[in-house]
Design goal:
alpha/beta; Rossmann fold; six-stranded mixed beta sheet; 17 strands
Amino acid sequence: MALNCIKIQHKKFTENCKTKRYPVPEKVSIPMSQHMGVPCEPLVSVGDEVKVGQRIGDSDAFMSTPVHSSVSGNVVEIENFLSSNGRVCKSIVIECDGKQTVSEDVKPPVITDKLSFINAVRESGCCGLGGAGFPTHIKLKYDENKTPVDSLVINAAECEPYITSDYREMMENPDDVLNGIKTIQNILNIEKVYICIEKNKPKAIELLNNMSLNDDAINIVKLSSLYPQGAEKVIAYNATGRTVREGELPLNQGVIVMNVSTVGFLNRYFKTGMPLTRRRITIDGDAVKSPCNVKVPIGTSVAELLRFADCEEDKVSKVLAGGLMMGMCIYDLNTPIVKTNNAILALKSDKKRIQTNCIRCGRCIKACPAGLMPTELEKAYNQRDAERLKLLRVNLCMNCGSCSYVCPAKRNLAETNQLAKIFVTDNN
């Protein structure tokens, strides 16, 4: 059995661009919601002096992870921040002093057992760096007696067009990637590791394969260069052959899926104690004259990064946070970079999608990796039929956008599916 995937243009123009280090900006705005779950509450006030790596936001909620300062300087404002998904949270505005003084709290964690390991992961402020932002310590905090896990799947597919930030992590920090994997594997007593890389990244495949030759537990899985290989349920199936059913997490099938940049970051944190304060970003798009990969302090504005990459601002019609398929439109270029960002795309052309009637060709059904029927989902949503939507399993939709991509009638199928999921939730 094989899951449906589609072929797209990968446009990996920055694959050979070594990561640049972005200079300290004059000011950053650090939102208190940078992960899936409950936003943090500010731990500092206007006028306070802060240092790099200092915890400036936290929450007692189960589904939350702390936020740290990426710069040293003074808090000048705590403002309301409207994110691209429509949620409002507090954001701490810091005027940088240019010194980048490191907080006294930044120390390598002492890890002696699973509990201290989980606590350290939480204190790092780590969430999934592949885009969803699931708090990493929650993913690793499972009861092995109730949910035995035998497989760790490392998501290095990076199947979205343009983005190469994960690829550069593998090429520039392979030791961190492998040592991070081994630490997680040893602490959690996981038998097998699958590092899943698309075949269009032969150098990364060769590098990690050569470095792990003497480790029988690590398997390099070469994935076909198709989309969406990086979706969690798709990659779990392609690595282990296990199907993650509706309402399940990979954990329910004995699998943990982690992004390759996540494990690389965790290894650096275990060595240095520096929490998640910087993010590698791919800056590209046909309006960008100098595409690049750059490591930036969290809270840096998108506008500054576009200027850094010589963006032709007067020709930009659309800016995306993320890739072409699943990226979110940025409505304000002063929007700050957050933990879950891996790319900023500036695009010139904004061709209008002129919708026509569905011609019943079935391409969307053939393209859906979850085996859904987007045309029927659209019809059920338009009729506001919650029971029909449940029967059609709308909650299995992973928002990959494949259905909209292949539709000759230019129907907004992926968008409709997301609205339909909200509708079903509201009518439960």
